[in-house]
Amino acid sequence: MRLMKIIVLLLTVISITTAQNNSKNKKSEKIMFKTLEDSISYSIGQNIGASLKDPAMNIKFDMVFKGLQDAIDGKSELTPEEQQVVMNKFNQKLMSARAAQTNAVKDKNKKIGEAFLANNKTKEGVATTASGLQYKVIKEGTGAQPTDTSKVTVHYKGTLIDGTVFDSSYDRGEPITFPLNGVIKGWTEGVQLMKVGSKFEFYIPSELAYGDTGAGQVIEPGAVLIFEVELLSFE
C-alpha cells in the first residue's frame, strides 16, 4: 500500500496548488520558501512527482482524486481486501510493462551491436574467436599467459560502442586484481590470450558480457562492450 500512500500525498499537494492557481490567465509566481518546512515539502513533491512519471503506470488522476475524497469523507468503494487484490494486479501489470520496455531496449541494442561487430571484424588487426569475441593487439608482451584460474592484475578502460566510458582503473589511478574466472566471459577468455606486458582491445558481444540484463545505469541490456586491457601481472 506504500505506492497508494505516495499517490495520495502527491495529489494532496497537487490539489492545494491547483486551488491556489485556478486562474489559467494568471501568470505563475515564483515560489518563496519562507521556512525549512516549505523547502522540505516542495522537495517531497518533486521526488514523488518524478517517481510517477513512468508512463507504464498510466495513473488516472480523476479516480485517484475520487479515492482521496472518499478517504477524507471516511468511506470507500473497495474493501481493504479488494484494494490489496487491485494493487497486486497493478504491480503485476507494471512489472510486465517494464519487462516489455527492457526487451525493446535489449532488441535495439542487439541489432546495433550486431551491426557494429559485423563491421568491426573487417577492420585491420581485429581477430575473432570461436565464441564471437573480437580483439586487437595494441601492444604484444613477452611474459607468460594466465589461465582461467589465475588471479590477474590489470589496468583497463571500459566503454560503450558510442564511446561512453563506464569504468576505468586509469581514472582511479590504480590497477585492479581479481580472479579471472570471476568476471564476465569475454574477460575470462580474452585475458588468457594476453602475455604479461600486453595491451589488447576487446570487443565483447552482449552474451559474453552482461547479456539481457545489463549492469547498473549505463550498461543497458544487450549492449556490446569495448575494453582496453593491459595485463600487468598474474599469479
Structural class assignment: alpha+beta
Shape: elongated
Please give the radius of gyration in angstroms: 27 Å
Helix content: 40-55%
Q: Give the mean pLDDT.
A: 86
Succession of helices and strands: HHHHEEEEHEHEE
Q: For the report, how would you describe the main beta sheet?
A: 7 strands, antiparallel
Number of strands: 7
Give an account of the 3D structure.
With 235 residues, the protein is an alpha+beta fold. Helices cover 42% and strands 18% of the residues. It is built from six helices and seven strands. The protein has helices at 2-20, 36-51, 61-72, 80-120, 169-172, 185-191; strands at 126-128, 134-139, 151-160, 165-168, 176-179, 199-204, 225-234. Strands 1, 2, 3, 4, 5, 6 and 7 form a seven-stranded antiparallel β-sheet that branches. The two termini are 53 Å apart.
